């Protein structure tokens, strides 16, 4: 009451409902016109309408004499559309784009709440609108231009061939018979875009006569916007209570089910979904999502939903697989339906999909070839089954898409037990249908039970690793003690046998070293369990055996020299990578396998005529220490040694140098002007 006193009524206006133009009045929304088309000078050349579609096409003249009109552009458009010759079929007979076509589209599907109002002499007259149409420019003349261009090209190509050749040309005709169309295929065809476009094109245009704004006929029709009589007989609908009047003027947005566009099958409106019963909500959700944890299902159903009721309903449309709910096959493939790929009936599809679901109750991985071999279904159907509940992994198979829901299994053991009983019945049916052998099923079942739970926590993995280490340590300790005892017994037997051995003394030449491989084998035995000729030479007490160090140095020096003659500049990281690749290509037992440290490798680089270039990298670089150490071949013995040294000195001062600076420095230091090819060769 206080608010009404603050906002007093200033004037009362009588409202009348005009019914003369009922179901005839349309509102046209024009686009913003260019400066060459104003409301005063626009002339409607023609108008036509398709009443069923409420589609209007208007053709309006353009003022070509307006100073804002670009004449050259209009001539170019007319030339592209009609070509050089003009006839009755030409779109622009004046060889100038002098008209524009506008095509309509519906701005709103429900216009029952909109009306046109006219205020006159203290009275408000309302006429309900039958439609609201938005007019947009139509560019069909561009399609005509493309069509004429293709016709001209076809005429030019066809001019070279004679009529005789055309008559002699024989083409093979392939006859195909289409299968009878199913009801599901017919519904998809009727709802397709091409079918709707074809139906819209079949409706004929109704040509209209346009009357201008100041025409006498327009003035006459405009009078129908006013109520023709003020008596109670015509305005009985307005003798209502205020609430009823507002309800009539602004009815609730209730659209007919047939007028609603068909939404895609994978799109749901949550607002419409929650108006359905709980069982229907769960069925629609599971049919669209296909695999869902119970916690996610509860969150989609909204707060306040009883979990017990959800559990009771979800068991009617889904089965439990690895703690998650998977929609039943008969929900996805109802009775009297068939496969869109192969035409297989729904019963066969349900059995095949149940087999895939049962396989996932046994293991997290399923092989597609195995499923296809058992079910005898086409690859497309098997792929659909797997995509419903799993993800493809390269070189592994198909993995169940969700992790094992251990929380649900612990909270609801009665549900889990009931689902296990259902799966036992499904397994028995599958064994009869697909002739599955029990000896093939039992090991997998036991393996799955022993591997339970499928999801292993980090703490359990750590404990398992510790137990395995302890077990392996005990075995290794026993083997070591056994080997130690054997070595002691061998040493004692060798000591007792030495005095009884008589060594024959022979003159030893200074040029040939004496072969001591046999004695080394007696005293040292096997080296790390490998014979010296079979394994790498290992250091003894931190030093390589005599004579091995020289061979290692020679091999390492040969590798470093050959590498830097090819690469010229290398970081320590790249050099180590190349060295590891070189080791991988060597045969077993090579001398380089004795162990090369980073220091030995760097010393050898410096000994082969290379130098370390201290490149001043920026402090914020993310490179590793080995990548910051740069080595370069200082003297290669070719004609570019001096140029290379100048270039390396430049990079020792800055890690980024411009090309013109390099070229000027090379010319200054070397005393000659290098061309672009020579500079590129040095930089490379």
Automatic annotation (TrEMBL):
Domain DNA-directed RNA polymerase III subunit RPC5 C-terminal: 444-684
A GO CC term assigned to this protein in UniProt: RNA polymerase III complex
Highest taxon in the source lineage: Eukaryota
Listed Basic and acidic residues bias regions: 146-155
Pfam families: RPC5 (PF04801), RPC5_C (PF19725)
InterPro entries: RNA_pol_III_Rpc5, RPC5_C
GO BP: tRNA transcription by RNA polymerase III
UniProt-annotated stretches for the region Disordered: 146-169
Protein's UniProt name: RPC5 polymerase
Gene giving rise to this polypeptide: Polr3e
């Amino acid at each position: 009451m206080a608010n009404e006193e603050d906002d007093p009524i200033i004037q009362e206006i009588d409202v009348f409902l005009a019914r003369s133009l009922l179901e005839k009045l349309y509102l046209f929304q024009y686009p913003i016109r260019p400066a060459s088309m104003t409301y005063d000078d626009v002339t409607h050349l023609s108008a036509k309408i398709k009443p069923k579609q409420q589609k209007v096409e208007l053709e309006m003249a353009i003022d070509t004499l307006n100073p804002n009109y670009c004449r050259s552009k209009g001539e170019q458009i007319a030339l592209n559309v009609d070509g050089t010759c003009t006839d009755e079929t030409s779109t622009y007979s004046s060889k100038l784009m002098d008209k524009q076509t506008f095509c309509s589209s519906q701005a709103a599907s429900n216009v029952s709440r909109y009306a046109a109002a006219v205020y006159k002499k203290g009275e408000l007259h309302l006429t309900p609108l039958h439609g609201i149409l938005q007019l947009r420019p139509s560019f069909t003349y561009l399609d005509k231009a493309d069509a004429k261009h293709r016709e001209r090209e076809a005429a030019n190509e066809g001019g070279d061939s004679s009529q005789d050749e055309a008559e002699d040309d024989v083409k093979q005709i392939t006859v195909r018979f289409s299968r009878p169309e199913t009801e599901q295929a017919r519904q998809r065809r009727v709802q397709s875009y091409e079918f709707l476009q074809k139906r819209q094109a079949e409706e004929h245009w109704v040509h209209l006569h346009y009357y201008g704004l100041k025409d006498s006929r327009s003035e006459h029709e405009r009078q129908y916007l006013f109520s023709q009589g003020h008596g109670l007989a015509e305005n009985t609908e307005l003798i209502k209570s205020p609430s009823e009047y507002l309800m009539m003027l602004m009815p609730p947005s209730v659209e007919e089910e047939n007028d609603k566009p068909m939404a895609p099958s994978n799109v749901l409106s949550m607002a419409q979904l929650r108006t359905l019963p709980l069982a229907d909500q769960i069925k629609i959700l599971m049919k669209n999502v296909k695999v869902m944890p119970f916690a996610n299902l509860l969150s989609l159903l909204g707060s306040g939903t009883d979990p017990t009721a959800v559990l009771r309903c979800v068991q009617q449309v889904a089965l439990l697989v690895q703690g998650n709910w998977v929609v039943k096959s008969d929900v996805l493939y109802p009775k009297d339906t068939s496969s869109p790929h192969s035409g297989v009936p729904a019963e066969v599809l349900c059995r095949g999909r149940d087999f895939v679901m049962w396989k996932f109750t046994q293991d997290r991985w399923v092989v597609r070839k195995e499923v296809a071999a058992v079910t005898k279904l086409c690859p497309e159907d098997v792929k659909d089954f797997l995509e419903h509940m799993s993800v493809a992994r390269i070189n592994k198979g198909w993995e169940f898409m969700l992790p094992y829901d251990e929380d649900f299994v612990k909270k609801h053991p009665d549900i889990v037990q009931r689902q296990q009983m259902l799966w036992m019945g499904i397994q028995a049916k599958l064994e009869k249908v697909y002739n599955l052998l029990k000896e093939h099923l039992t090991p997998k079942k036991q393996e799955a039970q022993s591997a339970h739970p499928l999801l292993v926590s980090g703490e359990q993995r750590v404990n398992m690793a510790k137990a395995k280490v302890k077990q392996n340590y005990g075995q290794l300790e026993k083997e070591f003690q056994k080997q130690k005892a054997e070595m002691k017994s061998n040493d004692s037997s060798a000591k007792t046998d030495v005095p009884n051995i008589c060594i024959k003394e022979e003159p030893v030449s200074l040029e040939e070293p004496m072969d001591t491989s046999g004695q080394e084998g007696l005293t040292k035995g096997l080296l790390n369990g490998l014979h010296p000729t079979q394994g790498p030479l290992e250091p003894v007490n931190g030093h390589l055996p005599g004579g091995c160090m020289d061979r290692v140095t020679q091999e390492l020096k040969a590798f470093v020299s050959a590498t830097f003659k090819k690469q010229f500049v290398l970081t320590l990281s790249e050099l180590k990578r190349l060295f590891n690749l070189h080791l991988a290509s060597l045969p077993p037992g090579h001398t380089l396998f004795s162990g090369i440290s980073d220091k030995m490798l760097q010393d050898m680089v410096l000994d082969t005529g290379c130098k370390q270039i201290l490149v001043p990298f920026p402090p914020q670089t993310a490179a590793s220490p080995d990548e910051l150490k740069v080595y370069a071949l200082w003297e290669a013995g070719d004609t570019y040694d001096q140029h290379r040294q100048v270039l390396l000195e430049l990079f020792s001062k800055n890690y980024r140098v411009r090309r013109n600076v390099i070229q000027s420095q090379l010319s200054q230091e070397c005393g000659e002007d290098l061309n672009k090819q020579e500079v590129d060769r040095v930089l490379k």
